[in-house]
Design a protein that fits this description.
Elements (H helix, E strand, L loop, with lengths): L2 H5 L1 H6 L1 H18 L1 H14 L5 H50 L2 H6 L2 H8 L1 H34 L2 H7 L2 H39 L1 H6 L3 H53 L5 H42 L19 E9 L9 E9 L3 E6 L5 H8 L7 E6 L2 E2 L5 H7 E4 L10 H5 L8 H10 L3 H6 L17 H13 L5 E5 L7 H14 L4 E5 L11 E6 L2 E6 L1 H7 L2 H17 L1
Length: 582
C-alpha cells in the first residue's frame, strides 16, 4: 500500500523542504488543537469545585482566542504548502507525459489508444495528485496525530481508560487492509473502462460525418450506452467498497465511545477521575474520530494513487523505438541522399513493405514515387523521417548514415505533407505558422499563393483569422491539403516530402501548384508520391514500386518508352482526363 510513496520518492526528494515544513506545521497545528479540550476540562473542574474566578476566566478566554489565531495561521501555512506541492506533482507528471508522447514513434500510438492516453493524462494524474496532497495529510493524521491524542489521553488522564477505548483499533486495521486490496483491483478496472469509453467517444466525434452518412447514429448511441453502462458498473463496484469505509469506521468509533463513556463514568464514581477529566477524555475521543477515519481514507487514496501511478509509469517506461545516437554526427548541408538495399517490415508483421530498395538522390532533384496502393511509397518517407527502427540496409545523407544523425537535425531539414492532413483547432494563420513560428502575413500570403489558396481564403468569413475547427472540420479536403502545403512551403525545407498531397485538388490547381514548385525549389530536394501521374511527370527521376520492389525507374519519357505499368497507367489516366474535359 505505501509503495506509492516509494515510487514517488524522486518527487519528495526534490521538494523535501516543502514537505518537511508542511508536515512540521501540520504537527504543530495538531498539537495546538489538543490544548483546548484540556483547558475545557480544567475549567469544568474549577466550576465543579467553585474555584473559578473572573481573573482566571478572563485568562482562559484570552488564551482560547490566542490559540485560535495561532492555529488558523499555522493551518493556512501547512494547507497551502502541502496541497500546492500536490499541484506541482500533477504539473510535472503531465509535462513528462506530454514530452513522452512527443518523443514516441508510431508503434507506441498503435499500442496505446488515444482515449486511454487521455484517461491517464487526466483521471490518473488527479488520483496521483491526491496521493501527494490528501494522502500525506491522512498519513500524518492517522499516525502522528492519532498517537498524540492517545498520548494525551493516556499520560494526562488514564491509561486504563485509553487502552479500553482503543480495543476496536486492531479490528479496524484488519478490515481496512481487506478493503484497500479490493479498492486497488476494482479501481484499476474502472480506469481501464474509462479509457475505453474515452477512445470510443473520440472516434465517434471524429467520424461523425461517416456515422451520419451510413445512418449509424442509433447503433453508435447503443454502443456508447453499453460502454457507459460498463464504466458505471465498474465504478459502482468501487463505490460499494468505498461506501463500506464510513459505516465501518462509525461502528468502531461508536464502540470506542461506548467503552469510554461507560468505563469513564465508573472511574468518576470511584473518584479515580474528575468530571473535567471525563469531559476532556470524551472530547479527545471525538477528536480521534477523524484520525480513525483518516486510516480508511489513507488506504483508499493510496490504493487509487498506486493503481493510477502504475498505469502512468507503464506508459512513461515505454522506450522509444527510435532514439538519438549517443554522439550524433553533424552534417552541415544535404548534398545527397542514398538508399542502399533498404528492406523493412512494420512491427508485428511478417510481410516486407520494402525489399532491397536502392536510390540515389542529388541535391536539387525532384523524385517521383508511384505505384499501386500499399506498394510502399509512404514507408520510404517514414524511414527517411526515422519513425521506425530495425531497417535492413542503409540510408545515408551526404555520405553519413541516417542513424548517426540527431532526430532534431533530420527533421529540421524536412517539410512533410502526409496523406492525412492534420489541422489544429486554431486559425489558418496559426496552422501555417507551425512551419515558421515568426512568419509574417506577407510570407503567409506568398506561400498561400504557391499553394493556390488565396481565392479560397477570400471566401472565408475572417480570412487568415478563420477558425478551422476540430481537425479542420470547416475546410474541404482540398482546402486542408493546400493549407498543409502552405505550412510546409513556409518552412522552405531542404527536403520537401509530398505524400499524395494533391489528391483532393483538381487537375488545373495541381498543375499550377506543380509549376510553382518547379520555380521555387530549383536547388532543393523534393519527393512526390502520387497516384495521379501528372503530379510527377516533371520529376528528374521516377521510381515505380510494386509490393515494396522497384520494378521501373527513369524520367517520364524513359518510363513511357518502357511500356510497363507506368506507361499503361499514364495512358489510362490521360484517356480519363479527356473523357472528363470532353
Amino acid at each position: 500500500m505505501f509503495s506509492v510513496f516509494r515510487k514517488l520518492n524522486w518527487f519528495f526528494k526534490h521538494y523535501w523542504k516543502r514537505y518537511v515544513f508542511a508536515i512540521i506545521a501540520l504537527i504543530i497545528a495538531s498539537a495546538i488543537g489538543l490544548i483546548p479540550p484540556k483547558i475545557a476540562g480544567y475549567t469544568i473542574d474549577h466550576i465543579q469545585f467553585e474555584t473559578l474566578t473572573l481573573q482566571l476566566l478572563t485568562a482562559i478566554i484570552v488564551g482560547y482566542l490566542l490559540l485560535i489565531v495561532i492555529h488558523y495561521a499555522i493551518s493556512y501555512l501547512w494547507d497551502y504548502t502541502l496541497f500546492s506541492g500536490a499541484v506541482i506533482l500533477e504539473k510535472w507528471m503531465r509535462s513528462n507525459l506530454m514530452q513522452h508522447f512527443l518523443a514516441m514513434t508510431p508503434s507506441f500510438f498503435g499500442r496505446y489508444r488515444t482515449g486511454d492516453l487521455m484517461a491517464r493524462s487526466t483521471n490518473d494524474l488527479k488520483a496521483i495528485s491526491l496521493t501527494a496532497g490528501f494522502g500525506v495529510l491522512t498519513l500524518v493524521d492517522s499516525s502522528i496525530f492519532m498517537l498524540m491524542i492517545i498520548a494525551m489521553m493516556g499520560f494526562t488522564i488514564s491509561w486504563k481508560l485509553t487502552i479500553a477505548s482503543l480495543i476496536p483499533l486492531p479490528i479496524m486495521a484488519i478490515v481496512m487492509n481487506k478493503y484497500g486490496a479490493a479498492i486497488h483491483a476494482r479501481f484499476t478496472k474502472a480506469q481501464e473502462a474509462f479509457g475505453e469509453m474515452n477512445n470510443d467517444v473520440l472516434e465517434s466525434i471524429r467520424g461523425v460525418r461517416v456515422l451520419r452518412a451510413f445512418v449509424q447514429e442509433k447503433q453508435d448511441a447503443q454502443r456508447f450506452q453499453a460502454m457507459t453502462t460498463d464504466v458505471y458498473e465498474k465504478n459502482i463496484e468501487v463505490a460499494k467498497i468505498d461506501a463500506l469505509f464510513e459505516p465501518t469506521m462509525k461502528i468502531l468509533v461508536g464502540l470506542s465511545y461506548t467503552i469510554g463513556l461507560g468505563y469513564g463514568a465508573f472511574l468518576v464514581f470511584e473518584n479515580i477521575l474528575t468530571l473535567g477529566d471525563l469531559v476532556t477524555f470524551n472530547v479527545y475521543l471525538g477528536m480521534l474520530i477523524w484520525p480513525m477515519f483518516a486510516v480508511g481514507e489513507l488506504i483508499n487514496v493510496l490504493q487509487r494513487g498506486n493503481a493510477s501511478l502504475d498505469r502512468v509509469n507503464h506508459t512513461l517506461n515505454y522506450q522509444a523505438d527510435v532514439k538519438d545516437p549517443t554522439k550524433p554526427v553533424h552534417v552541415s548541408e544535404v548534398t545527397s541522399i542514398d538508399f542502399s538495399s533498404v528492406s523493412f517490415s512494420y512491427p508485428d508483421t511478417e510481410m516486407q513493405q520494402l525489399k532491397d530498395v536502392s536510390l540515389h538522390v542529388q541535391r536539387g532533384e525532384t523524385i517521383g514515387i508511384v505505384g499501386k496502393t500499399g506498394a510502399g511509397k509512404t514507408t520510404i518517407f517514414k524511414l527517411l523521417l526515422r519513425q521506425y527502427p530495425d531497417m535492413k540496409g542503409k540510408i545515408t545523407v551526404s555520405g553519413e548514415d541516417l542513424q548517426h544523425l540527431s532526430l532534431e537535425q533530420i527533421r529540421s531539414w524536412i517539410g512533410y505533407v502526409p496523406q492525412d492532413q492534420m489541422m489544429f483547432s486554431k486559425t489558418i494563420r496559426e496552422n501555417i505558422q507551425f512551419g515558421k513560428e515568426d512568419a509574417t502575413d506577407e510570407e503567409i500570403f506568398r506561400v498561400m499563393q504557391l499553394a493556390h489558396f488565396l481565392d479560397d481564403m477570400k471566401q472565408l468569413p475572417n480570412g487568415l483569422d478563420t477558425q478551422v475547427g476540430e481537425s479542420g472540420v470547416t475546410l474541404s479536403g482540398g482546402q486542408k491539403q493546400r493549407v498543409a502545403l502552405a505550412r510546409a512551403f513556409i518552412k522552405d525545407p531542404e527536403i520537401l516530402i509530398l505524400d499524395d498531397s494533391l489528391s483532393a485538388v483538381d487537375g488545373k490547381t495541381e498543375a499550377r501548384i506543380i509549376d510553382h514548385l518547379r520555380k521555387e525549389r530549383k536547388n532543393k530536394t523534393t519527393f512526390i508520391a502520387a497516384h495521379r501521374l501528372s503530379a510527377v511527370t516533371h520529376a528528374d527521376h521516377i521510381i515505380v514500386l510494386e509490393d515494396g520492389v522497384i520494378i521501373e525507374q527513369g524520367n517520364h519519357e524513359q518510363l513511357v518508352k518502357q511500356q510497363g505499368w507506368y506507361q499503361e497507367q499514364y495512358n489510362q489516366q490521360q484517356l480519363e482526363d479527356k473523357e472528363v474535359t470532353g
